[in-house]
Design goal:
Blueprint lengths: L16 E3 L2 E3 L6 E2 L1 H6 L22 E3 L3 E2 L6 E2 L4 E2 L3 E2 L6 E7 L3 E6 L3 E3 L1
Antiparallel strand pairs: 1-2, 2-3, 4-7, 4-11, 5-6, 8-9, 9-10
Length: 117
């Protein structure tokens, strides 16, 4: 039966098994949907776009398009704040921009809350 199942995307183990709608790897414990493996891009570069659809690149300058509350701070990042020299990353959740926000320091932002300047 394991001959027809894909190997684990995390550790490449061939011992994956079905558990309901998911596939499970007994070697590393990773669980995934078989459809997610079929839809995964084949080493294609990831394209990150801003809130209006412009493609972002490392080193771009972006502008914040809405007030953002900052966890652990009573202040918020205001609309129109310019952030220079962004770096695109695979961040936590859907945070895909690593940057230094003036007055706040280093943090990650979502591309959906910025516009290319």
């Amino acid at each position: 039966m394991s001959d027809t199942l894909p190997p684990c995307p995390e550790c490449a183990s061939e011992y994956a098994y079905e558990d309901g709608a998911l596939l499970v790897c007994p070697m590393c414990g990773h669980e995934w949907s078989p459809a997610a493996v079929d839809d995964a891009p084949s080493d294609a570069p990831r394209v990150i776009k801003d809130a209006v659809g412009n493609v972002l690149a490392d080193g771009d300058t972006v502008t914040v398009i809405k007030d953002l509350k900052v966890k652990g701070s009573s202040q918020s990042i205001k609309v129109g704040t310019k952030v220079r020299g962004i770096r695109l990353v695979d961040g936590v959740g859907d945070h895909d921009i690593d940057c230094t926000v003036p007055g706040f320091g280093s943090m990650q932002l979502k591309s959906s809350v910025v516009k290319k300047a």
